[in-house]
Task: structure prediction
Amino acid sequence: MEPMIDVAAITEAVYGGDVVRSLLFAAAEQPENRVVRVAMASAEPGKGGQLHHHPETDEIYFIIAGRARLHLNGEQFDLVPDNCVRIPRGSTHRIASVGTERLRYLAFHVGAADNDRPVAHVQAPGTAAAGSADREPADAAAPKAR
Result:
């Protein structure tokens, strides 16, 4: 499954000169889905989250600034600003900041989970307490999203 979402192809509307794009969608096979949590996240170069999964929610990342490497079910995807990816519930993943700039991104959790409790976050076995990125030389060419 290709996790990348073609943001430019999603419904776009213009209101008074502002362009608005829809980044979230309702999956036909999961009509109970709703946005459970939205977070602004960041990571300094060389840092990142732990390998984990969410049993009750899908997660969507929208990259605002910096460069990221997403590990998703054993595959790697390089992300740059304006890239958007959907991580299906139960998928093992982590995101890390690569390059020289701080990574900033929005993380949306979408599912049928209750809004009055934290999103379930299950750390992968054997994962270290603090994540670190797969470092690249500062002068590496910008990665291309797949």
User: Anything to note?
Assistant: The chain is about 0% helix and 45% strand. The longest strand covers residues 34-43.
